[in-house]
Write a structure and sequence with these properties.
The chain is mainly beta. The protein has strands at residues 2-7, 10-13, 18-26, 33-39, 46-52, 57-59, 67-72, 77-82, 91-99, 102-105, 109-114. The strands form two sheets. Strands 2, 4, 5, 6, 9, 10 and 11 form a seven-stranded mixed beta sheet that branches. The chain has a four-stranded antiparallel beta sheet with strand order 1-3-8-7, with no helix packed on it. Strand 7 (67-72) and strand 8 (77-82) form a beta hairpin. It is globular, with a radius of gyration of 13 Å.
Length: 115
């Protein structure tokens, strides 16, 4: 079993920055990859960024060059640094972890970007 808890969401003006954190607990050694997804108003949940055990990263085209995903293995934490935020980045951001093809999800944290 894996438990994920997100934090760091909030309200920010366009052009500003936020740092989201995802703390993992439980069977950490079984996690193959972790990532961030988001769901904006009236939209379906979409991939934002992923990172594998080996440190390989992947980003949605809409956030490339602005967002950075990283790991802190000592603290079992995945971080999403979000810079140059735009109103279209608004949504609930969810952390996930993959274990043998099964996805665990956090509760989500709200990010609101004002114009």
């Amino acid at each position: 079993q894996v438990q994920l808890v997100e934090s760091g969401g909030g309200l920010v003006q366009a052009g500003g920055s936020l740092r989201l954190s995802c703390a993992a607990s439980g069977s950490i050694f079984r996690i193959n990859a972790m990532g961030w997804y988001r769901q904006g108003p009236g939209k379906q949940r979409e991939l934002v960024a992923t990172i594998t055990k080996g440190g390989n990263t992947n980003y949605a085209d809409s956030v490339k060059g602005r967002f950075t995903i990283s790991r802190d293995n000592a603290n079992n934490t995945v971080v999403l640094q979000m810079n140059s935020l735009k109103p279209e980045d608004t949504g609930v951001y969810y952390c996930n972890g993959w274990v043998a093809g099964y996805a665990y999800w956090g509760q989500g944290t709200q990010v609101t970007v004002s114009s």
